[in-house]
Design goal:
With 405 residues, the protein is α+β, with helices and mostly antiparallel strands. 20% of the residues lie in helices and 35% in strands. A hairpin with a 2-residue loop joins strand 15 (349-353) and strand 16. Residues 1-30 have low confidence and may be disordered. InterPro entries: Chloro_Bact_Ser_Proteases, PDZ, PDZ_sf, Peptidase_S1_PA, Peptidase_S1_PA_chymotrypsin, Peptidase_S1C.
């Protein structure tokens, strides 16, 4: 027998022994028991001796996760999206009238972050409240309250609700999302699959601090915007949307917003969830409370990624130098808009805005949305092969412009 063959035999024997040990005593053991002369018949008589009791020993299993959960759980609510539904019965048909009533259309989560006087304020996701005829929230104690919409922002997928705060005793606090670290423990609290599972806790880690992901609307189509979010493997399921992602200090470091369920080609994905960073959340909700909406500056142009333009057209129409590989091509300019006032024209290729290089059209939106209305930004663009510089005063909003960017 070769040395390699002997090795195979030894492994096989070990595997067999392991299998026998794992499965219990082998047939030979049963034969031995049968031949031992031991009485193995089931005893008769009363079964009173088979009763059981529990121990009074108390095990202290309190962990930092449990402390963090206890600090936040009472401020987490279920958000119920109600819609009007038409119904008809015999009496309404005979009377020529139909009645309507409110029914629960969907549910999500939210977190109470502020109490002021008799009012309490809740942050949740825009997609949780979108299309609602009315809103309710269910507190951690099961009590349901009417909720009023303060403001929404579809770009960041955030919304603020207002409720009667007379019964609210616990509010959450926000931590600094810039201070989180990849690998640190993260906890999610919410109502996965609805209020039946309200106050559910899941635990994971921070997988990435600043992940760029494309945003989609309620119809599932891309909005053309991207979001910078926290990636976590903490379980986030339908119904968790709008609930808090917290650290072990019990601070809200993000608002759970979405998860990646597949790669778009049929492959299921697990453990990739996203939360809106708390620093962005506080900035947005403060503006929503103040104005009810978010005002973002606009350029007043429509544009395409340079990568979508054929190389031959880049040379013949745009007359770009071969060294220019990234940018956006202006193909429509709103008369009298900020870009038009700055001198931009059709077929200009923007390569820099506010001092940042442009490689895709998403970056234009991200830069604009980081600017304040009324501010002035620098711009660099190519026209007929020549690099030009200028400045644009961002004094109009997306809602004021017929062309939104």
């Amino acid at each position: 027998m070769k040395k390699s063959d002997r090795f195979v035999v030894k492994v096989g024997v070990v595997a067999l022994v392991a299998g026998l040990l794992g499965g219990g005593i082998a047939y030979g053991g049963i034969n031995l028991l049968q031949n031992s002369g031991v009485d193995v018949a089931v005893p008769g008589g009363s079964n009173a001796g088979g009763t059981a009791s529990t121990s009074n020993l108390k095990v202290n299993v309190q962990t930092q996760s449990e402390k963090a959960y206890s600090a936040v759980k009472d401020s987490v609510v279920s958000v119920i999206n109600l819609k009007k539904t038409s119904s008809s019965d015999v009496s309404s048909i005979l009377g020529g009238k139909s009645s309507s009533k409110l029914e629960a259309n969907s549910e999500g989560s939210g977190v109470i972050y502020k109490k002021s006087g008799n009012a309490a304020y809740i942050v949740t996701n825009n997609h949780v409240v979108s299309g609602a005829s009315a809103l309710q929230v269910q507190l951690s104690n099961g009590k349901q309250l009417e909720a009023q919409l303060v403001g929404t922002d579809s770009v960041t997928d955030l919304a603020v609700l207002k409720i009667n705060g007379s019964q609210i005793k616990s509010v959450a606090t926000f931590g600094n999302s810039d201070n989180i670290k990849v690998g640190e423990t993260a906890l999610a609290i919410g109502s996965p699959l609805g209020s039946t599972y309200a106050s559910s806790l899941t635990q994971g880690i921070i997988s990435a601090k600043k992940r760029q992901v494309p945003l989609t609307g309620s119809n599932g189509q891309s909005t053309g915007n991207t979001a910078t979010v926290i990636q976590t493997d903490t379980a986030i399921n339908p119904g968790n949307s709008g609930g808090p992602l917290i650290n072990l200090a019990g601070q809200v470091i993000g608002i759970n917003s979405m998860k990646l369920a597949s790669d778009g080609e049929g492959t299921s994905v697990e453990g990739i969830g996203f939360a809106i960073p708390s620093n962005e959340v506080t900035s947005i909700i403060n503006q929503l409370v103040k104005k009810g909406k978010i005002e973002r500056p606009a350029l007043g142009i429509r544009y395409l990624d340079l990568s979508n333009i054929a190389v031959s057209d880049q040379k013949s129409i745009l007359k770009l130098p071969s060294s220019v590989e990234n940018g956006v091509v202006v193909y429509n300019v709103t008369s009298g808009g900020p870009a038009a006032k700055a001198g931009l024209k059709k077929y200009d290729v923007i390569v820099s805005l506010a001092g940042k290089k442009i490689s895709s059209q998403d970056e234009i939106k991200n830069i604009l949305y980081s600017q304040k209305l009324g501010s002035t930004v620098s711009v660099q663009y190519y026209r007929n092969g020549h690099l030009k510089t200028g400045s644009i005063k961002l004094n109009e909003t997306t809602s004021q412009m017929k062309i939104t960017q």
